[in-house]
Amino acid sequence: MTTDIAEALRRRLVELLVADDLLHDPEVRRAGETVPREIFLGPAIYRPSPPPGTTVWTPTRRADLSAEDWLRLSYENTTWVTQIDGVLAENATGPVTGGTPTSSSTLPGVILWMIEQAGVTRGKRVLIIGAGTGLSSAYVCEVAGQENTTAIETDPAAAERARKALAEAGYTPALITGDGLSGRPEEAPYDIVIAFCSVRHIPYGLLRQAKEGGTLLVTIAGWGFGHGLVLLTADGGGGASGRFLPGYTSFMMARPHDRPPHGPVELLPGAERPSRIDPALLDEWSGRFVAQLAAPSAERLGVGAEQILLDVATGSQARTRPDGSGGWTVTQRGPLELWSAVEEAIAVWQNQGAPHLSEFGMTITPDAERVWIRTPDGPSWTLPV
Fold it and tell me: For 231-249, what is the mean pLDDT?
């Protein structure tokens, strides 16, 4: 009975993704109808409290639900967090207030869509960065063949959990515990590299592991919490180029690229002047990404009219607030004028018509990684490397 329910739920999920024009490849659709996601959610997940306010993560154990309820939870097109601050949900002793997700089972629809966008087909050699629960690896095994699938997971506990789930589901890809950003050079070159984590830039050594004409599908992100999914083609000479894809895809930051730790933030006095832009533009998907390009070393802490930018290395700060007259005041302090850089970049973007990220592209050479608007010779910014 539960087998029939699981199969029906998988088919229904794929039907919804097809109806939303996300899936077209019959083999990718078949993978979605075949792989048992309920196994990859493991013994437990964390369920978040509804907004607003500080998120409370409550462990939900498979053993505490009926088989049908677990299956219905499994086939929601939802990301389920499986690890908070390094603690797997099955090891949690109770609800966790706040905390940072460190591993999850991403929406099946996003994973399958990315596999299709990357051009995964039977026989192509695929390198997966960020194995997570192992679900993405299982989907790729179904499409490309498990002998052509290599996955890397940096967290030992998550990797072992994924390894067990893959075995239980009947898949045996190469699953390596290690730094995914270093890739697996001894098995290179790969036809396709897919990252299920975000990076501030494409590690050059990883780029060199893609064959000439090979594909890299990676989310570029940063400490301003802007995200953009870019599809690149490697040129075989240490470079690559491509465009950002439509939609709103985000992933957890790869741990080596995560923002530097710091204690409580003390907002200090500085030079004040009127802001030339609405600070709430940094809450908009593409505006936030542009601001991040302009101030890549700054962590964004604020929201709405009260944005806060903090550069830990230099101590530079910028913060905005309403001025009471319909405008905004910015206070800047330190050697980097963070808000001034953001204002200039936003103005450039707005002069181009404030396009969505799908009108941006990226060019990588051995010397630099550059994000541009519309064409490679359009306005551009260099990523931190």
Answer: 95
336-355 pLDDT, tens digit each? 999 999 999 999 999 999 99
Q: What is the pTM of this model?
A: 0.95
Domain segments of the chain: what residues?
A: 269-351
Please say if the pLDDT value at position 38 is more than 90: yes
Cβ-Cβ contacts under 8 Å for 27 (sequence gap 6 or more): 121, 122, 142, 143
Please report the pLDDT score of residue 1 as a whole number. Answer: 64
Give φ, ψ of 12 to 5 degrees.
Answer: -65, -40
Share of the chain above pLDDT 90, in %: 94
Q: Which residues are catalytic?
A: 103
Q: How many other CB atoms are there within 10 angstroms of residue 351's CB atom? A: 10
